[in-house]
Design goal:
single chain; mainly alpha
């Protein structure tokens, strides 16, 4: 990456590491709902990938 960046005259910049500040409680009904909705989103977003994996 650095070689490619320097080809165009761009210098890489150090970025600060961002730590998570919130903690999710996935226990209980609300946690189950979060897991279900995120799973549905992942399945919908990567539908073709999962279909190809299922056909292997």
């Amino acid at each position: 990456m650095n070689k490619k960046m320097s080809m165009y005259g761009v210098r890489p910049v150090e970025r600060p590491k961002i730590k998570a500040t919130k903690k999710l409680d996935l226990s209980g009904v609300a946690g189950q709902q979060i897991v279900k909705s995120e799973t549905k989103l992942a399945l919908r977003t990567h539908r073709k990938t999962f279909e190809k994996l299922a056909d292997m």
